[in-house]
């Protein structure tokens, strides 16, 4: 019996090369098809804004592709696992490896090592590229694909309350006293909660206290009268710190920024369980790629000529997709407070790791 975890050096590189080439091929196929379908659905909205053309369509593609890669990379690893192992099985290469004394775990070891490398690259890609693309795309969508906002420090769809009054902003730029709100709408409400005045402005800056609306349009509800003002100061009870905590998008912040946001919200007495689950999932999500060789391993074994290869491939695919379903369900339960954040992010990972290992041991070892 061989006690080494990996097979020979040549076989390890051979299996890893087969696996990585199929991951890249499947990922390219999925991303290209999904990007074309997504662009067909969004191109009308993008081109509807005056002045938009091919450059804006290309800009949308550059922002959307990182999101598609991050979302479908684990699926690509799953499909690549099944394709690789089914091909090796059909060509009797698995039988040859087992005849040479290799165990099922040793056959899967190069694939697991490759999946770990893919998971690390996926984590770095998500933190450095996907978060910035998500923030820029969300800010651009909030202005109906109008003038492209800066992709540095931009947030969108801000909702704030100052007592009974409400203030909404399409986008936010900057931080601290230099913070700027764009596309601002302020609603002044009566003690009974009825809107008595509306102010709209393209831009608002913090003047400590309050926010200065630049050339706002005022609408008086009782008199149904519209007037344009030179400026107006509203929402004196809202500070830049409260604006920062008003809406935290986990997809638009890297793991360090999200940790700081969670700490600020916790200090302010806000509920943070949803964001904590998202923080943990930034680690467990990319790491799910390491599960795919284990869940798809059932396609590697059994005699191909027995006619069971297709069934085994379907079983491996079903196990992989079941993981994604359970993972999303656990996150949803965590968001509603049904699971603790740590359990919501990690329970599906360890559950399916045990399932995959059990299936492999019971059937092949």
TrEMBL record:
It comes from the Bacteria. One of its GO terms (cellular component) is ATP-binding cassette (ABC) transporter complex. Its main location: membrane. It is a multi-pass membrane protein. InterPro entries: LptG (IPR030923), LptG/LptF_permease (IPR005495). The chain crosses the membrane at residues 12-37, 68-86, 107-125, 309-326, 338-361. Pfam families: LptF_LptG (PF03739). GO terms for biological process: lipopolysaccharide transport; transmembrane transport. It is found in: Cell membrane. Keywords: Cell membrane, Membrane, Transmembrane, Transmembrane helix. This is LPS export ABC transporter permease LptG. The gene is lptG.
């Amino acid at each position: 019996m061989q006690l080494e975890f990996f097979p020979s050096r040549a076989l390890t590189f051979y299996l890893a090369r087969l696996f990585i080439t199929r991951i890249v091929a499947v990922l390219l196929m999925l991303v290209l098809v999904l990007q074309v379908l997504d662009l067909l659905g969004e191109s009308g909205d993008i081109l509807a804004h005056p002045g938009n053309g091919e450059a804006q369509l290309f800009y949308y593609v550059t922002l959307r592709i990182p999101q598609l890669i991050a979302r479908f990379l684990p699926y690509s690893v799953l499909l690549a696992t099944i394709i690789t192992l089914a091909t090796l099985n059909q060509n009797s290469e698995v039988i040859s490896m087992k005849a040479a004394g290799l165990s099922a775990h040793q056959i899967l070891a190069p694939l697991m090592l490759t999946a770990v490398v893919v998971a690390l690259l996926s984590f770095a890609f998500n933190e450095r590229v996907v978060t910035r693309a998500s923030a820029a795309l969300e800010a651009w969508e909030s202005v109906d694909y109008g003038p492209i906002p800066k992709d540095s420090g931009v947030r969108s769809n801000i909702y704030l309350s100052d007592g009974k009054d409400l203030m909404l902003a399409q986008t936010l730029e900057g931080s601290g006293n230099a913070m700027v709100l764009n596309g601002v709408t302020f609603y002044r409400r009566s003690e009974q909660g009825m809107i008595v005045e509306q102010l709209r402005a393209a831009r608002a800056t913090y003047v400590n206290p309050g926010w200065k609306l630049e050339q706002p349009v005022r609408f008086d509800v009782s008199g149904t009268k519209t007037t344009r003002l030179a400026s107006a100061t509203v929402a004196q009870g809202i500070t830049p710190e409260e604006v920062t905590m008003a809406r935290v998008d986990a997809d638009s912040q890297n793991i360090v920024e999200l940790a700081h946001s969670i700490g600020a919200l916790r200090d302010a007495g806000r509920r943070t369980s949803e964001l904590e689950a998202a923080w943990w999932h930034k680690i467990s999500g990319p790491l799910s790629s390491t599960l795919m060789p284990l869940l798809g391993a059932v396609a590697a074994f059994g005699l191909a000529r027995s006619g069971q290869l297709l069934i085994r491939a379907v079983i491996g695919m079903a196990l992989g997709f079941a993981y994604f379903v359970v993972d999303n369900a656990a996150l949803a339960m965590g968001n509603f407070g049904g699971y603790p954040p740590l359990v919501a992010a990690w329970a599906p990972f360890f559950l399916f790791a045990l399932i995959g290992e059990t299936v492999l041991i019971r059937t092949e070892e």
